[in-house]
């Protein structure tokens, strides 16, 4: 049996990925590239649904590639590419828009949240059709597994529905993908407001740990993270959301289990524990940040990697698109 296909994507909407992106998604991308046929995509077209700043988009697309490689995505093992360099994404995206109901697209919570924030006049049509482009990203590669954080669950569900509908109506065309969402770390919370997820668009910079930020700044953010009542280091998401979030982060990076961490910090206060979390985070990302900065100094090398990835991706994407067109009766 051939290796299972994996596909996932990340938006180049910030100078740096944050810790939620890494623990919820990219860390799994790295693990899955062994033993799977993995496609990882920097989704620049999706990034156009937010504020567009041309110089920043270019810079952030390259910074995303550099960070993915420094975090462990190997261009030899995985196909790493930029979405816009594979035009089949737009082409299949249109077909998905023609499969999706207006009502089901209107129920997407990310669209509802984002459009509610800015008001319906500032929300663009691209934000509404975003999930159908995402479905195309996944289905083009006949992906079996889609490693993502919890916030993408509904988009993967929609993708499965659209693929199933297409297959039933027009004949077997797409693999129905499954999400790959961790039980822990699928939702890393904001350090200042542990009731909200850590997010690029979050209100407070102090609550978001950026991988490319300086070690000093990240250590400071962790040490001033909001904590909870009491002084015991115990995992209890309801009563102690701040400490539970920090326990999840420590555990995911150090490999120690949460009960082992609770025992280690038994009788010690929040201050000692936060100091330890800061050290784990800073030491984990110190070499990764240095490598990303180094990779960014050779733009041509990064572009070559991405062009090679897109060349490989286009081969698979064009086969799927051709099959979909044929099944729809589109004349060749
Ligand atoms: P994006 O760019 O917002 O985030 C990239 C990945 O990071 C995960 N993530 C988190 N995980 C845990 N805790 C958090 N606080 C946290 N914040 C973000 C996201 O779940 C995601 O896996 N729509 C996607 C991009 C996309 C895509 C795709 C993903 C486009 N096409 C095809 C998979 C397959 C998005 O906005 O991710």
UniProtKB/TrEMBL annotation:
Keywords on record: Aminoacyl-tRNA synthetase, ATP-binding, Cytoplasm, Ligase, Nucleotide-binding, Protein biosynthesis
Motif range ('KMSKS' region): 197-201
Cellular location(s): Cytoplasm
Binding site for ATP: 11-13, 20-21, 149-151, 188, 197-201
EC number: 6.1.1.2
One family name in Pfam for this protein: tRNA-synt_1b
Xref: PROSITE patterns: AA_TRNA_LIGASE_I (PS00178)
GO molecular function, one term: tryptophan-tRNA ligase activity
Binding-site positions, L-tryptophan: 137
Source organism superkingdom: Bacteria
GO biological process, one term: tryptophanyl-tRNA aminoacylation
Entry keyword NAD: no
Transmembrane annotation, as ranges: none
Signal peptide residues on this chain, from the entry's feature table: none
Catalytic activity: tRNA(Trp) + L-tryptophan + ATP = L-tryptophyl-tRNA(Trp) + AMP + diphosphate + H(+)
Self-association state and partner proteins as the record states: Homodimer.
The protein's role, per its UniProt record: Catalyzes the attachment of tryptophan to tRNA(Trp).
PANTHER family: TRYPTOPHAN--TRNA LIGASE, MITOCHONDRIAL
Protein name per UniProt: Tryptophan--tRNA ligase
Source taxonomy: Bacteria, Bacillati, Actinomycetota, Actinomycetes, Candidatus Nanopelagicales
């Amino acid at each position: 049996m051939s290796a299972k296909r994996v596909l996932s994507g990340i938006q180049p909407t910030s100078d740096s990925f944050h810790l939620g992106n890494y623990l919820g998604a990219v860390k799994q991308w790295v693990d899955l590239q062994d033993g799977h046929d993995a496609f990882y995509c920097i989704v620049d077209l999706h990034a156009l649904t937010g504020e567009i700043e041309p110089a920043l988009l270019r810079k952030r697309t390259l910074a995303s590639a550099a960070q993915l490689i420094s975090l462990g995505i190997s261009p030899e093992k995985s196909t790493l590419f930029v979405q816009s360099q594979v035009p089949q994404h737009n082409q299949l995206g249109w077909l998905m828009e023609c499969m999706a109901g207006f009502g089901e697209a209107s129920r997407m919570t990310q669209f509802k949240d984002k459009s509610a924030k800015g008001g319906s006049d500032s929300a663009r049509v691209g934000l509404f059709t975003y999930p159908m482009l995402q479905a195309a990203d996944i289905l083009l590669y006949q992906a079996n597994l889609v490693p993502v954080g919890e916030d993408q669950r509904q988009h993967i569900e929609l993708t499965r529905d659209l693929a199933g509908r297409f297959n039933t109506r027009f004949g077997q065309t797409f693999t129905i993908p499954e999400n790959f969402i961790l039980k822990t770390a699928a939702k890393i919370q904001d350090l200042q407001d542990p009731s909200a997820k850590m997010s690029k668009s979050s209100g407070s910079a102090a609550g978001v740990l950026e991988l490319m930020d300086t070690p000093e700044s990240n250590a400071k953010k962790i040490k001033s993270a909001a904590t909870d009542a009491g002084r015991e280091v115990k995992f209890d998401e309801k009563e102690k959301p701040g400490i539970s979030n920090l326990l999840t982060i420590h555990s995911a990076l150090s490999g120690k289990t949460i009960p082992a961490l609770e025992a280690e910090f038994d009788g010690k206060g929040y201050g000692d524990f936060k100091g330890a979390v800061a050290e784990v985070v800073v030491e984990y990302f110190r070499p990764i940040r240095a490598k990303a900065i180094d990779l960014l100094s050779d733009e041509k090398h990064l572009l070559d990697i991405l062009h090679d990835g897109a060349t490989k991706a286009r081969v698979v994407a064009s086969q799927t698109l051709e099959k979909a067109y044929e099944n729809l009766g589109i004349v060749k």
